[in-house]
Design goal:
It is a single chain. This protein is α/β, with parallel strands linked by helices. It folds into 2 domains: 9-296, 3-Layer(aba) Sandwich (Rossmann fold); 354-499, Isoleucyl-tRNA Synthetase, Domain 1, CATH 1.10.730. The chain has helices at 25-43, 59-67, 72-89, 103-118, 172-181, 189-200, 229-233, 236-239, 247-253, 266-279, 311-314, 324-335, 346-375, 390-405, 409-430, 439-459, 464-473, and strands at 9-13, 17-18, 47-55, 96-99, 122-132, 137-139, 157-166, 186-187, 206-207, 209-210, 218-219, 222-227, 258-262, 288-291, 294-296, 342-344, 379-380, 498-499. Strands 1, 2, 3, 4, 8, 13 and 14 form a 7-stranded parallel β-sheet that branches. A 4-stranded antiparallel β-sheet has the order 6-5-7-9. Strands 10-12-11 form a 3-stranded antiparallel β-sheet. A hairpin with a 2-residue loop joins strand 11 (218-219) and strand 12 (222-227). The protein is elongated. Bound molecules: zinc ion. Residues 132, 134-135, 149, 151-152 line the site of zinc ion (ZN). The site of zinc ion has 6 residues, from loops.
Length: 511
């Protein structure tokens, strides 16, 4: 085994998204979770590398390109930028964006294939089976629902061809041993049990090549065979960081800390992928964070069912239901515990926006800025070391840190919002707006400003734009993203003496 990443690095990935469709809510969900997690790790001072990208090869793409009257390359070049553009609009802070049609990827994939071939785990054989073109996946009879693909609910094809196979069947015991030594590698825990159960059923070899289409990466030792889906797609996680090209860069990042994946691709990521890596002499991932599906009307979003939600519509503030980038990011992160299925509804989106953002956070900033403007000449007083809010802040910080460490953004935000609620309650109990200017008002407002300062840092992974606005309005300089946890969220960091600005409402209420 090679490679062990330095403890101060943090590497996380999203799946690469297949370019047969435009970016939708499901893509945005995993990508926003990954982004927020990486932003949190940056606050911890980690050297973060966040990777996303697009999966651009395969029969389905070749067919889609044919249907559009385009060459495959031209077709994928027209779709991939839609993803990069969507992520920019959603403030996704990815450090890299890999496309599987890039040279660096082809070189790395061929390197990986050769390593597994040299270890004797890739062999030529005849494949006979049931194949769903839409999934680009083979099924066994038991997987089918009324004879149809369980995901697309359409008929599968009987296929027979000469393929190279990866001998996954040799890896059952090695995978079980590895997982026994790495409890907690998969979160949430019940997904680990699912993976172990799947391995214990006995593993089948899987096909890794095709001769029936040409849009893909040829096998290095037999170029009439094109690499079929998994060796091409999964390999992006290593090819993007230099595998096969730059060993030093690769070993500084690998093993990945978390692959963020949806529950539907767990088998490929948690069984096939570590076996492929072991075969090539590469250490398996440190972790996988498995999310549920964000359903729409109880169904998985798909072109076939016609329930596709475009996240870019929801952030358009000129629309009645547009909630801005942070409103959307917050909903996605806060509304569904990561790992469980969520159900996207417009009512839910607006409800979260009004309760947590407009009424809690927006209202807190507005109250504080108004009172400081009226009673403190617009200059923020310093907090008290023995403030009644200090304990609430300490427990919010501890809980927020623990929940991000568990990859539970919804619970981390709940912990952060406890401090917002405690601060609003503190203001209501003390009613500084009714008091004459003086020590009482200064004490209360200094404490509230300090709570807002801490909230801005803790909430910044989820709502980066808003966190910076709060930071600026309470008179702090620099970028909130450059703060460090835990040092900068210790009680007492607000200096006092800075100008506090009221500004427009952070989150105008939606009806
Ligand atoms: Zn299918």
């Amino acid at each position: 085994m090679v490679a062990a990443n330095a403890s101060n690095s943090f590497y996380a990935t999203t799946p690469i998204y297949y370019v047969n469709a435009k970016p939708h809510l499901g893509h945005a969900y995993t990508t926003i979770v990954g982004d927020a997690l990486c932003r949190w790790q940056r606050l911890l001072g980690k050297d973060v590398h966040f990777l996303t990208g697009t999966d651009e090869h395969g029969l389905k793409i070749q067919q889609a390109a044919d249907a559009a009257g385009m060459a495959p390359r031209e077709f994928v070049d027209s779709i991939a930028p839609l993803f990069a553009d969507a992520w920019r609009k959603l403030d996704i802070s990815n450090d890299d964006f890999i496309r599987t049609t890039e040279d660096r990827h082809r070189i790395g994939v061929q390197h990986l294939l050769q390593a597994c071939y040299d270890s004797g785990d890739i062999e030529l054989d005849t494949y006979r089976g049931l194949y769903c073109v839409a999934c680009e996946a083979y099924y066994v009879e038991d997987d089918l629902v009324s004879g149809n693909c369980p995901i697309h609910k359409r008929p599968v094809e009987h296929v027979e061809e000469e393929n190279y196979f990866f001998r996954l069947s040799r890896y059952g015991d090695r995978l079980l041993d590895w997982y026994a030594k790495h409890p907690g590698a998969i979160v949430p825990e019940h997904r680990m049990n699912e993976v172990i159960g799947f391995i214990k059923q006995g593993l089948l070899d899987f096909s890794i090549s095709r001769t029936s289409f040409s849009w893909g990466i040829p096998l290095p030792w037999d170029s009439k065979h094109i690499t079929y889906v998994w060796f091409d797609a999964l390999a992006n996680y290593i090819t993007a960081i230099g595998y096969g090209v730059d060993d030093a860069a690769f070993s500084s990042r690998w093993p990945v800390d978390y692959h963020l994946i949806g529950k539907d691709i767990i088998r490929f990521h948690c069984v096939y992928w570590p076996a492929m890596l072991m075969s090539a002499g590469i250490e398996p991932p440190h972790g996988w964070a498995v999310g549920g599906w964000l359903l729409v009307g109880g169904e998985k979003m798909s072109k076939t069912t016609g329930n596709v939600v475009n996240p870019l519509d929801l952030i358009d503030e000129s629309r009645e239901d547009g909630v801005g980038v942070d409103g959307f990011r917050y909903y996605v992160l806060a509304d569904t515990p990561y790992g469980a299925d969520g159900d996207f509804t417009y009512e839910g989106l607006i409800g979260r926006y009004n309760s947590d953002l407009a009424n809690n956070l927006g209202n807190l900033l507005s109250r504080v800025a108004t009172v400081v403007g009226k009673k403190c000449d617009g200059v923020g007083p310093a907090p008290r070391a023995d403030s009644p809010l200090a304990d609430a802040a300490r427990s919010a910080v501890a809980e927020t840190m623990a929940r991000w460490a568990d990859v539970q953004p919804s619970r981390a935000l709940e912990a952060t919002w406890q401090l917002i609620r405690a601060t609003n309650a503190y203001l209501e109990a003390n009613e500084p707006w009714k008091a004459e200017p003086g020590a009482h008002v200064d004490n209360v407002m200094g404490d509230a400003l300090e709570a807002l300062r801490i909230v801005a840092i803790l909430a910044s992974p989820a709502i980066p734009r808003t966190a910076q606005i709060v930071w600026d309005r309470i008179g702090l300089s620099g970028s909130v993203a450059d703060r460090r946890v835990p040092d900068d969220v210790a009680w007492g960091g607000y200096p006092g003496g800075t100008t506090v600005v009221k500004g427009d409402p952070l989150f105008p209420r939606k009806s």
